[in-house]
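hey so i finally got around to running the thing on that chain from the lab meeting. sorry it took forever, my laptop kept dying and i had to restart like 3 times. anyway pasting the input first so we r on the same page abt which one it is
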Amino acid sequence: MSHALEALLARGAAAGLRALPWRSSIAAGAALGTAAGGLGLRRRVARANLALAFPKKPEAERDAILAAHYRELGRVLAEYTRMGELSALDSEAIAAVHGLEHLESARARGRGVILMSGHYSSFELLCARLGRLHPTDVLTRRVSNPGVERWLTERRHEAGLGTISSETGVREVYGALKAQRFVAMLADQDARGHGVFVPFFGRPTSTALGPARISIATGAPILMGFTTRGRDGRHALELEPPLEAEDPRASDAAERLTARHTARLEHWVRKRPELWFWLHRRWKTAPPGSAH
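ok and heres what got predicted. didnt touch it at all, straight out
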C-alpha cells in the first residue's frame, strides 16, 4: 500500500472517531483495538514480552492483559484525534491531576523541566494538559509515512505543543530548557548499542542515556508523569517528585539516573500492565557478552 493511501485511510478513520462524542469514540476505539488484536497485530512480540516481564503469571492471565492492552491502544488512538479538545482545563476526559506541587517546585528553579513518561496510556494527553499551564515541547521520532507524520504534528500543534525532532533536535532541547520551557521525552524503547543497560523487569535492558545526560548538563530536573484510566474512561494524571543525579560529577551519574527513572516506569507498568506498550521489542538488544 502506498504512503498516500495509508495516510488517506488513517485520516478517514480519525475523522470518523473525532465526529463521535468522546465516550462513544473511546468505545469505538476499544472495538478497533480488539479487532487489531484479533488480526494478530504484533501479537507474537507482545506475548513474548509479557512472558519475559511476568514469567510467574499464568499464560491465561498474560493473554487477558494483552487483550485489555489492545482495547487501550484503540482508546488512545480515539483520544489522539481530539487531543486539543481533551487537554483543555475543563476537559471531561480528565478526572484529576495529582502532584502539581512537584511541577511548580521544579519550575521555580528556572532551569526548565524534563517531563518523562513511557508509552503508557494517553501519555501525550498528559503532555498537552501540562502544556496548558506552561510552554511545552515534545521530543518526537519521525514515522516513515510523511502524511501520517504531518497528521500527528497537526494534532500536537492543535493541542498547543511544540515539537522537536529527535533526529536533529539536541541543540533545540538545550535551547528550550534554557528558555525555561518543559520538554517531554520518552526513554522506554530499545536503544540498541547506543544505550546503557539498566534493570527493567529484572533484565539488563538497553535504555537511552539522553534524558539523564541532558538533566545533568543543564540542571533541569526529570519529572515523571503517568496517566491512568479509570472505569469511567476518564484519566487521573499523576506527577512524581523530581529526579536528579545524586552526584552529578560521578562518572556513572547518567547511568544511575537512567536506572532510577526506568525503575519508576517499571513500578507503574506493574500497577497497570495493560496500559504500557507491549508491541515493541523492548529486550531486542542483548548485553555485550551474553548468550541471546
